[in-house]
Amino acid sequence: MALEHAILVSLLEKPGSGYELARRFERSIGYFWTATHQQIYRVLKRMEGDGWIDVREVPQQGRPDKKEYSVAALGRTVLSRWLHEPIEPESVRHDLAVKIRGAAFDDPVALIGEVERHQRAHADRLTHYLAGQLRDFTGPDAPTAQDAGQELQHAVLRGGIAYERMMLAWLDDVLATLHGLRPEH
Predict the structure, then answer these.
(1) What was the pLDDT predicted at 145?
(2) Burial 62-86 (b: 16+ CB within 10 A, else e)
(3) Which of 111, 143, 144, 165 has CB atoms 3.0–4.6 Å from 150's, for a disulfide?
(4) For residue 156, what pLDDT is reported?
(5) What is the pLDDT of residues 149-159, one digit of tens each?
(6) Cα 111 to Cα 159: distance, rounded to the nearest angstrom
């Protein structure tokens, strides 16, 4: 996926400034597609030049005017074309898995701290995802089935939750294996 497609999706969900878009990437989109502020601004400029997005100046009190971006008709066409193209299933590229395999040629027990660090990061992300699900998809204000955008956002979130749970189960297994390799005293 190109950064352009992630930006188009985000702007279709809600138009905004480059800063607002970068914040969305930090809070939600960034869990499955990361980009720096500089990358986002550079791509926005290119997309504007290509006619994929529209820009309007929004006056602000006591601050410089901001640019608010929205998706132009050509951008919708580009996104639609991309949505209909097949993509290859992603292959797992996981540095930690390579380290775990490589630990057989060193001291496997030395990897315990690194695996525990990954475990904490995945547990934190799962907690964040579950809090977002509770906040955005439960209770009286929960979106209805008629809101396709919200339902699809929830489906992506559920995928993230399932992935983090799978990673935590795998890391538990790795830790049990590493602890089992400790020499007997």
Answers:
(1) 62
(2) eeeeebbbebbeebeebbeeeeeee
(3) 143
(4) 87
(5) 788 888 888 99
(6) 28
Among 123, 118, 115, 135, which residue's Cα sits nearest to residue 161? 123
Q: What digits encode the pLDDT tens for the residues 39-97?
A: 999 999 999 999 999 999 999 899 989 999 999 999 999 999 999 999 888 776 788 99
Instruction: Yes or no: say if 22 and 11 are a contact pair by the CB < 8 Å rule.
Output: no
Number of Cβ within a 10 Å radius of residue 99: 14
2-84 folds as Arc Repressor Mutant, subunit A (1.10.10)
What the block records as the tokens of 140 is 């009286």
Beta-strand ranges (E) seen in the chain are 53-58, 66-71
- How many Cβ atoms are within 10 Å of 46's Cβ, its own excluded? 13
Q: What is the pLDDT, as a whole number, of residue 142?
A: 67
C-alpha atoms less than 13 angstroms from C-alpha of 185 in its C-beta half-sphere: 1
The arithmetic mean of pLDDT across residues 159-174, rounded, is: 95
Neighbouring C-beta atoms of residue 168, cutoff 10 Å: 16
C-alpha span between 117 and 115 (Å, rounded): 5
Q: What are phi and psi of 182, to 5 degrees?
A: -65, 140
